[in-house]
Design goal:
The chain is an all-alpha fold. It is 62% helix and 2% strand.
């Protein structure tokens, strides 16, 4: 299932073909909103709040073009979202777990993960619960994410080049720009081998460098 953060609600670019005349939005009713929700959920994984936002955009367009009542439409939307939750098609916790794992694998720092989940309308208590579970499995979330990003970009101990010392500052800057703290950056970049990073992660992230670079560096 596709993540919905980079794709518009209808999955289509209305301006892709300038010759195509834009159709007038359909007048909403409970059944059309339910069908729209099911169609959306077939393609995208999302939170209940984000699904509500998607459907409300349809309600507002209908109100603008057909002079329908947006308050009545909002009631229909609430009922549709509740039905999707009852049917198990929308589950904020499962959505958050999947999104956290995905962002962690990309090397997104903890602050960025929290921000992305808040943007999708995931309740704060669910965000805290999911991140606590991830920490049980992976230890320090920032440290695990920094390792993932270093591996993706072949930084520090993941580098296949022979000039690690010369590139140390550039590698550190790359992780710092991604949003990681100086302490996390040093632990990752100064690790001697990827295996040492795994050991540090299993020990809870560690608190000091591993000695690849002498103190004078």
């Amino acid at each position: 299932m596709i993540e919905d953060e980079t794709i518009e609600e209808d999955g289509l670019d209305a301006d892709a073909n300038p010759r195509r005349k834009k159709r007038k939005p359909a007048k909403v009713n409970p059944k059309k909103l339910e069908n729209a929700a099911l169609y959306y959920l077939q393609r995208f994984s999302t939170s209940s709040e984000n699904l509500r936002r998607v459907l409300m955009r349809r309600v507002y367009r209908s109100a603008h073009h057909h002079d329908t009542d947006p308050d009545e439409g909002a009631e229909w939307v609430d009922a549709v979202v509740a039905k999707m939750q009852t049917m198990g098609f929308v589950n904020d916790r499962l959505f958050a777990e999947g999104r956290v794992r995905s962002l962690l694998a990309r090397g997104t720092p903890l602050r960025g993960i929290r921000m992305r989940l808040r943007e999708k309308g995931v309740p704060p208590e669910i965000i805290d619960e999911v991140l606590a579970l991830v920490e049980e499995d992976d230890g320090d979330v920032d440290f695990a994410a920094a390792i993932a990003l270093a591996k993706r970009r072949r930084l520090g101990p993941f580098s296949t080049r022979g000039d690690r010392i010369e590139r140390r500052e550039k590698d550190m800057a790359a992780l710092a720009r991604a949003g990681f703290s100086y302490g996390v950056v040093c632990r990752v970049i100064d690790a001697e081998t990827p295996e040492d990073l795994d050991a540090m992660k299993n020990d809870g992230g560690g608190s000091s460098g591993l000695g690849y670079f002498p103190d004078e560096f």
